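Lab manual, section 2.4: Encoding a predicted structure.

Procedure: take the sequence of the chain (205 residues), apply the prediction step described in section 2.3, and record the output as structure tokens. A sample record is shown.
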Amino acid sequence: MRLIAYSCLISLTLGLACAPKPDSGDSHETTTTGSGDPHEATTTDSIEPTPCEGAATPIDATAIAYPIATDLPDCSDYESGTGCWDGPPDGSVLVHLTDRTYTCDPAAEYEQCGTWVLSFAIPAEYQAPGLYHLTGPAIRGSAVKFPEPAPDGQCEVASELLDATLEITAIDDTGVTGRLCHVQSPLFAGAGIDVEGSFSAPLCD
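Recorded output:
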């Protein structure tokens, strides 16, 4: 498996950010202009995942996974601005579910306005079948919604930490297979986006 260099170009393309960590405040939800990185949100309590029940139907979304290798130094000062990396650690697998059509080309450009992305990064030590809660600390998930552009052409980003159970059923050099259940996402629910069900995300090489 070849690791791609995770640069600012790729993170912006995927709807993430190279900016400092936002203040999580008293809520999991953040709203930013441009690109927000809800992977950076923190929680103080670990929630025990609730097992999924019954048969799962496939989520109506494109699924794709990217191996992570950063070409930026770690961020040690969140006030320093851009130019550093405080995203998923090296060796992680970043999974995206989206209504876009993603490819494995790191230079590909995507239309963001009017789309949505659910994403979570699986660190190397958790790349095994099992149950995880997406509020962390092992794996953190995010829900990102890009509304239609405003009259000035700008597209604001609404994002939140995703409250859901992730069940990984298989993960290897070919991809990640699993399901999401017990999803609590005011952002997605308000937009009529259903992300409960199974997925199979091929891994880019």
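Check your result against the sample. Confidence is low (pLDDT under 50) at residues 1-44.
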